[in-house]
Amino acid sequence: MHHTVTVLSAALLLTSAATTTTRAASTYDARFEQYPTYSGDDLELKVDSSGTHFRLWSPKAQEVRLNLYNTGLNGTPYETVNMTFHPENGTWTASFPKALYGKYYTFQVKYDGRWLDETPGVWAKAVGANGKRGAIIDFSLTNPADWADDKGPMTENFTDVILYEMHHRDFSMNPSSGIANKGKFLALTEEGTVSPEGEKTGIDHLKELGVTHVHILPSYDYNSVDETNLQTNTYNWGYDPQNYNAPEGSYSTNPSDPAVRIREMKEMVKALHDAGIGVVMDVVYNHTAENDGSNFELTAPGYYHRHWDDGSYSDASGCGNETASDRPQMRDFIVNSVKYWAEEYHIDGFRFDLMAIHDTETMNEVASELKKINPSIFVYGEGWTAGDSPLPAEQRALKDNVSAMKDVAVFSDDIRDAVKGHYSKAEDRGFATGKPGNEETVKIGIVAATAHPQVDYSKGNNSKSAYADSPEMIVNYVSCHDDLMLTDKLRKSMPDATDEERMAAAKLAQTIVFTSQGTPFMFAGEELFRDKKGVHNSYKSPDSINAIDWSLKARNRDQMDYYKGLIALRKAHPAFRMTSAEQIARHLVFDKIDSEKIPNLISYTLKDNANGDSWKDIKVIFNGSDEARVVKLPKGTWKAAVLDGKVDTEAGLGNFFKSVTVAPTSAAILVRE
Ligand code: CA
Fold it and tell me: 227-275: per-residue pLDDT in tens?
């Protein structure tokens, strides 16, 4: 994400961290080292045969009250009780001898002689409208039919995954979606929906496209949308966390019934799983929407966030604060929270927002604990922060530290910026749009930032070293919800071109992404050449900016077919999905091209049945210049699978001997017969 500050590159941040000496890590935090911790699964609320039990962790509270309500909003408590302290683990408890299903609760903490505002705590798994009160519900009644047998796709290697990043409202709000439950979890359960022109939309579109996983923007309960007034149709990306362990109410058909959002999110997961598609949650444990008013602060003041020496909140998120994953209770919180989503909601993967605010130890624990639940679950994140942090740079889950994290991947800003131009300089062009000087950085992307004998990292624009030990540590992309999406970037950086020319550039850019080693990632609607009307930070822009116009699918059918073809090609050919750096170094050989003389041309061979591919030798050529290029071919008959803006997985686009001419701004992929 980023909605208040533009995301900085990891390289920039490392520099800033190294030169910042005035604000050392805070001694303000030292007292927290003494806090006893508690991570039992009965934290905050547990209902069992003996009744309803509350247990709040707040070791420095002077008193804690529990308020019980009949309603999720408004009114006064029907009962308030003082909770009992247990100094050995820092928790406060209260129990009732029966199941209080249908009731709501808040905690209230007295700290430094002052009663703080009410809070549902940090572990509320069900909440009333707007998430102000926890709800006591019977979770066994929230499961869809056959939920016990529900399973996501099996993923052996992360490089087999094809990620599709989407937002609930983007996907279904436009009338052209033909979807009934617009902007809701249930939108993804509707089969048979079509655009006015009869093209498939919704989940059928995802099946047609062939992506393996959807990566859905934040779906936990966030702060910015008033769930009691959904008629106003407020849009937000959702990077403003409120309750981490309950779904967002505005995506449900009834935010006032705490069970509905839970059941409907599970129905969404089930429908996607039945379609063979996995579900990745975008998680934002790095900061909270509010500072003093956050559930963390109202529960255990000062503990869960980092601060500077002067007591002020540090702000590596650029959103006002940052959390403290390096403290045991916060680390447990993150680990147990993702485990909860994996177990209760059958989530298949987690994308960590501003992951470098967290420490590598936490991320390693996250990944290893999730693998115990389901080895197919994968974890990736943004290997950067959006500001300085008291956490030492060497502990941060930065892109440059990814090799210190097992089973965690990072986004490649190398390939992103090198292919299409700088993310924040709108007019800047990249390799695919004719700007020379990006060739070596694109090659860094092609080899997934692993060590390769033919890649000179000293010429990398964003990175100067092979930071990934394995291609499974890298997510390749050219655009996402942040910054200008691809269509808008191409319109701004190619102001004199036609959309037809820009679509050719988009095809080339995505061919690089979908054939590179690592895991490919695309932003929803790029396959239809949709735009966001040039808005680069659309986090609260209306649906008129953000929602996909599905009528584009018929109009830009050729673009859709190309993306679909690229995905099919990647799925059919493991050569594009190698699993180790050694494999890549052995099987991927670049042709020697002097970029000074022939800029914007990259050509390489995937040789000797790479990664068990049925194709022995595959030639991949990217021409980002505005001139046609003739590329020599070794002896034999070469059959084209990609040429002149077309993809054919059967390689029936023509036979070539000795050389192939690659049109301006296009890719060619050929296989030797
Ligand atoms: Ca909410």
Answer: 999 999 899 999 999 999 999 999 999 999 999 999 999 999 999 999 9
Phi, psi of 283 (to 5 degrees): -115, 140
What is the pLDDT at residue 14? 34
Residue 624 CB-density burial (10 A; 0-12 exposed, 13-18 middle, 19+ buried): buried
Task: Pull the structure tokens for residue 166.
Answer: 């989407």
Catalytic residue among 29, 199, 382, 617: 382
Q: What are the domain boundaries of the chain?
A: 587-672
b/e code 551-575 from CB counts within 10 Å (16+ = b): bbbeebeebbebbbbbbebbbebbb
Q: How far is CA 264 from the centre of its chain?
A: 21
User: Quick one: tokens of 482?
Assistant: 């942040």
Of the pLDDT bands very low, low, confident and very high (cuts 50, 70, 90), residue 13 is very low
Helix (H, G, I), strand (E, B) or coil at 348: coil
Quick check: 17 pLDDT over 60?
no
Candidates 447, 566, 433, 437; CA nearest to 493 is 433
CATH of domain 587-672: 2.60.40.1180
In 3-state terms, what secondary structure has residue 271? helix
Hey, what are 384's tokens? 């950067």
Report the amino acid identity of residue 133: R
Cβ atoms within 10 Å of 658's Cβ, excluding its own: 11
Alpha-carbon distances, residue 455 vs 441, 445, 513 (angstroms)? 9, 10, 17
Question: For 374, phi and psi rounded to 5 degrees?
Answer: -160, 110
pLDDT tens-place string over residues 390-448? 999 999 999 999 999 999 999 999 999 999 999 999 999 999 999 999 999 999 999 99
Q: Catalytic one among 227, 353, 388, 613? A: 353
Strand blocks (E) in 89-202: 91-96, 104-111, 114-115, 134-135, 163-166
pLDDT at position 34: 79
SS3 281: strand
Asked if residues 6 and 424 have their Cβ atoms less than 8 Å apart, the reply is yes
- Please count the other Cβ atoms lying within 10 Å of the Cβ belonging to residue 2: 21
φ and ψ of 77, to 5 deg: -60, 140
The CA distance from 67 to 256, in Å, is 19
Ligand 1 center to 555 CA (angstroms): 36
CA of 602 to the centre of ligand 1 (A): 47
Question: Cβ(282)–Cβ(217) under 8 Å?
Answer: yes
Q: How far is the CA of 671 from the centre of ligand 1 (A)?
A: 51
Tokens of 401: 């530290």
Give yes or no: 63 in active site.
no
* Side chain identity, residue 510: Q
Over residues 496-510, mean pLDDT: 98
Overall average pLDDT of the 92-110 stretch: 98
- Rounded Cα distance, 420 and 477, in Å: 10
Identify the pLDDT of residue 30: 59
Tell me: pLDDT of 551 over 50: yes
Beta-bridged to residue 647, according to DSSP, are: 642
Query: Averaged over 551-574, what is the pLDDT?
Result: 98
Closest CA to 421 of 370, 488, 332: 488
Residue 252 Cα to ligand 1 midpoint, Å, equals 10
The dihedrals phi and psi of 16, each to the nearest 5 degrees, come to -65, -35
CB–CB of 368/406 below 8 Å?
yes
What is the per-residue DSSP string for 70-95? SSSSSS--SEEEEPEEETTTTEEEEE
Average pLDDT, the chain: 95
Catalytic residue list contains 650: no
pLDDT at 78 over 50: yes
